[in-house]
Design brief:
Order of helices and strands: HHHHHHHHHH
Helix content: over 70%
Number of strands: 0
Largest sheet: none
Distance between the termini: 41 Å
Structural class: mainly alpha
């Protein structure tokens, strides 16, 4: 019993210390953002690595998610004679929820793990220590550009995911199942509001991008500088970033749509 309490206390202290280091890490990232903006070349390169190289999985996943929504939505709505509202169902589901969340989870699995592995390898090979020995702060040169690039790329990827998903719903609902094309697009246009739906979805994706990149960079920077340590940090990134996305999704949904009084 005593040993269990000791392990519990040690685990709690370790988690508290890690949370404190993560908070200080985020503070240093935010403080170095102006220096990164003054050197946009690094941000542009990371936008390519994090955004463009993630585009294929976003396009393919968005298309299939939209097609599944179109198929499942049609099978449900046809029982009520409301198959003309398929555009509303697909549009609101993607723009409000599935677009930001699914793209963030895919982003965490692809770009987040790559960030952690890259920074962890730089730490294991003492590249970060070499920069510090030359009086070069790695935060504005290495870490902040990657965080800023993920912050920018995530909402763009979410918009692409939602747009392709709506197209996938159209292909299944209209071209395959025979839903009227005019009803699909008209209901979609009239039901999706710019401020209540589109803008809230973009806000969600911005927060998700910041959280995923923060977790990924911190895990790489804080990992044990060995091959095993980098592997464990990469696994923690995917798990913690995914849980963070889902947790913040609930909080943001409650704030935006008044689900919690």
């Amino acid at each position: 019993m005593i040993e269990a309490l000791v392990r519990l206390g040690a685990g709690s202290l370790g988690a508290t210390a890690t949370t404190g280091r993560a908070g200080m890490f985020l503070w240093r990232l935010l403080a170095q953002l102006p220096a990164s903006v003054r050197r946009p070349g690094g941000v542009v390169r990371q936008l390519y690595n994090l955004g463009v190289l993630s585009l294929i999985i976003i396009l393919v996943s968005g298309l299939f998610v939209g097609m599944v929504l179109g198929l499942q939505g049609y099978n449900t709505l046809v029982d009520f004679g409301a198959e003309g509202s398929l555009g509303t169902l697909v549009g609101l589901s993607l723009v409000r929820e599935l677009g930001p969340v699914m793209s963030a989870l895919l982003f965490a699995g692809r770009a987040g793990s790559a960030l952690t592995a890259e920074i962890g390898l730089m730490k294991a090979t003492e590249q970060l220590s070499a920069l510090e020995m030359m009086a070069v702060d790695p935060f504005p040169r290495v870490l902040a550009p990657r965080w800023l690039a993920g912050f920018i790329a995530m909402p763009l990827l979410a918009v692409v995911f939602s747009a392709v998903g709506i197209l996938g719903g159209y292909l299944v609902g209209v071209e395959l199942l025979g839903v009227d094309a005019g009803s699909y697009w008209t209901n979609l246009r009239t039901s999706v509001d710019f401020y209540d739906d589109l803008l809230n979805g973009v806000i969600k994706s911005v927060v998700f991008g910041a959280v995923v990149c923060w977790v990924a960079l911190f895990q790489g920077y804080d990992c044990v500088p060995t091959a095993e340590g980098v592997g464990r940090a990469t696994t923690r990134t995917v798990v913690m970033a995914s849980l963070g996305v889902l947790g913040f999704d609930f909080l943001l949904t409650a704030l935006m749509y008044g689900e919690v009084g």
